[in-house]
Design goal:
Blueprint: E1 2-9, E2 16-21, E3 24-30, H1 31-36, E4 44-45, H2 47-72, H3 77-86, H4 91-103, H5 109-123, H6 128-137, H7 142-148, H8 154-170, H9 177-190, H10 195-204, H11 211-229, H12 235-248, H13 253-267
């Protein structure tokens, strides 16, 4: 038999208590454990009761770990489980903690998914396909994802995609108009926007059609291709290599021919 001779409150953590047995520090417990087991000065404990107390304290700390993780933002069920495993919480404790969180209505994957989608809409960076992928990685079920993603309307997608695309279009570029369109479309696809949204955005964005700027762009790439191929090729073969390279970058035949005529004439 062991007798509790003193109980003190920890200075830095007021909800935790130091338990002294036979005038010696034995262990500390959370306030919930203290109340549940009615720990008080003079209480005698069997060795088996002390083991039960320590297990209860360990379980309580597992719960506190989960609550702390939840305090920063809403989490999915799978996120919490992964976090607890990462913290090396005993598997049976994880199961008990998750059940307790569920009973306390702290686990709501649909609510989490909806909140996640709203935040992504607010950030104005990603389309639904990427958001769906992110939710899957967080362990949210397909049914909950499908329900939550409905929050993101066509109008939401269009507004986000158009703003992104127009910013890209407004940047100074040494590319052909066609190449710029290809790059913007590819970027929108990478960001997870639906194809019908992308098609409508591409019809609406305004790309600079400054002929002088595009001529500078073709000169930039044409000169680079000339330097690359002129060391090993000449004449018709050189012309074909430069033509193919510029055509692949979206420049029109008329522009390419004009550049080649001027470039090769000046180099003769």
């Amino acid at each position: 038999m062991s007798t509790i001779t003193k109980i003190t409150t920890q200075k830095k953590r007021k909800h935790r208590y130091n338990i002294f047995i036979e005038n010696k520090y034995a262990f500390s417990v959370d306030e919930d454990v203290l109340v549940k087991y009615k720990l008080a000065k003079g209480l005698t404990l069997e060795p088996s009761e002390i083991i039960e107390l320590l297990d209860a304290e360990s379980l309580q700390q597992s719960y506190v770990t989960a609550i702390h993780y939840l305090s920063f933002r809403q989490r999915s069920r799978k996120e919490i489980e992964r976090h607890l495993y990462k913290k090396e919480i005993e598997p049976n404790h994880i199961e008990i903690v998750m059940d307790r969180l569920d009973k306390e209505n702290l686990l709501d994957d649909l609510g989490f998914a909806k909140s996640f989608v709203r935040e992504r809409i607010r950030q104005k960076k990603k389309g639904p396909k990427i958001i769906i992928q992110e939710l899957m990685e967080k362990g949210v079920s397909k049914n909950n994802i499908n329900e939550a993603i409905k929050i993101m309307t066509f109008s939401d997608q269009y507004a986000i995609a158009f703003t992104f695309a127009q910013k890209r279009a407004d940047r100074p570029k040494k590319e052909s108009i066609e190449k710029q369109k290809q790059q913007i479309r590819a970027s929108l696809m990478q960001r997870g926007f639906d194809s019908d949204v992308i098609n409508e955005v591409m019809q609406e964005i305004e790309l600079s059609k400054d002929k002088e700027a595009e001529w500078e762009a073709i000169k930039h790439h044409g000169d680079r291709m000339y330097r690359r191929h002129s060391k090993r090729s000449s004449g018709f073969e050189l012309k074909q290599k430069i033509t193919s390279a510029l055509y692949a970058r979206g420049f029109k035949s008329e522009q390419i021919n004009q550049f080649i005529d001027e470039k090769l004439t000046n180099e003769e």
